[in-house]
Amino acid sequence: MAEIIYTLSRHNRDVNGCCFSANSRVLASCSGDKTSRLWDIESGEELPQSPLERHDYQVNSCCFSPFGTILATASSDCKVILWDVNTGECLAVLEGHRGGVRTCSFSPNSQFLISGSADETFCIWDVSTRKLVRCVDKIESTVNACVFTPDGLQVVIGTSNGNLSIFDVHKGNLLKYLGDAHDLGVTACSFSPTFGSADHDYTESQSGICISASDLIPTSDSGSQPINTSGCAPQFLLATAGNDNLVRLWNIFTSSAYSEDCHIDARCVLDGHQGPVLDCKFSANGRILASASNDKTVILWDPLRAVTLHTITGHTRYVTCCAFSPDSRWLATGSGDRTMRVWQITLTERGDLDTNAIILERKDDSQTMPLEKPKKKLLALWTVDEVCSWLETIGLEQYGECFRENAIDGAELSNMTSEMLLNDIKIGPVGHRNKILRSINDIKKEEIDDNIPDEYLCPISREVMTDPVIAADGYSYDRNAIELWLRSGRLTSPMTNAPLRNATLTPNRMLKNIINRHFGQANQPLA
């Protein structure tokens, strides 16, 4: 279920934020000690370009760009800094706030960055030009949380007085305001990356049983609270955390789909923490929601059924932040005990949390704990010695010394071309060059095949989605597959067999970006 792998303890103040890179290989943390740190998730070691030091006061938030090349950090020094993840170089210092910056978040396409501040404003920045697009004021309270909708067209703002607001990204105008979303203030918010909200009659079906939404919606009051879908399928599922000890789920209807109106409907309340909830994050497949609390625990929830899956303990002070890796293998948590903890998550074949797995907590006071290595090390992580050993396995050990002299490690090998082999490594025979390149391609293909997350596959065709769309049942399908399904006269959900309320298909841009990024990094084009 959840096994602790590392305890990372380089920070000397509270850990305030954490996030994973798009390829799940780098973990970033930020702290009250004015630094941000980068960690190699496979080894648990801090990367050579870390720590990142430029802020004058505590760093409150950090986030990777969805394309994985930039890290943004937000600080009480009123600045947001953009960093090159690979070199640790400061790319830009974004100045415009007059108060401490509490939070920051990238748009799904990495074009924009939003930052929220104690000066009761939020700013939208153009990432490529490093320029301020607009600053929206009159929020009337500290902005503690901000996030783009999955289509990147709106932003949701959560404030210290408990309000939620939706703004248009390009115009900056207020689309919807909800007062007192959390009695004592909103601390965090997160969108499900893959699931739309359920319709009025159906939430999710499993084992052939159709479950009524009203049966799944516990509230803090007695009885159940029905979902108001206003006669149409909702588009997005939002989770918010608050100082009222609660996590709340909301159906977000935007003006870009299903309805001309933009509104927020309460879906359910997740009540389980004994103290303020400081952060919440969805897993990549949307089936798990993690919440971090002042009560020193992290709770893992099933957001569709509104039930607790597991409670993680181990931190000795309040847990300030949490983050899932994009490949869903890891959960990172940060705390006021000045440590980061990395947990290995066990999932079922369906992508749910494996509640039958044995939970272990290793007792170790060392900075890092040994990680169970994967069966095969990724090509990009090979050392020079491992490259030379690989040459022996393909019968070309005579070139080992040339590779060693040129310091060809896995990262270099993965980008090797025939011209480089001829001109730089001095491998003359065409057959030998081709054999090396074929072997490299075979390794890459095997890595891709072994690491395609199930949520990238269309539920109908079981092939990688090239144009994912959200249907009225809230699930994502490849456009060609679901259109063929509908044209055949089948007006039921492929996942649940429940009737589809309508045939509207909304592009799932966030999922498409995630899939393209996954295959782009693997140098494997989508079919």
From TrEMBL:
Residues 451-525 form the U-box domain. SUPFAM superfamilies: RING/U-box, SAM/Pointed domain, WD40 repeat-like. Gene3D superfamilies: Transcription Factor, Ets-1, YVTN repeat-like/Quinoprotein amine dehydrogenase, Zinc/RING finger domain, C3HC4 (zinc finger). It comes from the Eukaryota. GO terms for molecular function: ubiquitin-protein transferase activity. WD repeats lie at residues 8-49, 52-93, 94-135, 237-260, 270-302, 312-345. GO terms for biological process: protein ubiquitination. It holds the Pfam family SAM_1. PANTHER family: WD REPEAT, SAM AND U-BOX DOMAIN-CONTAINING PROTEIN 1. This is WD repeat, SAM and U-box domain-containing protein 1. It comes from Actinia tenebrosa.
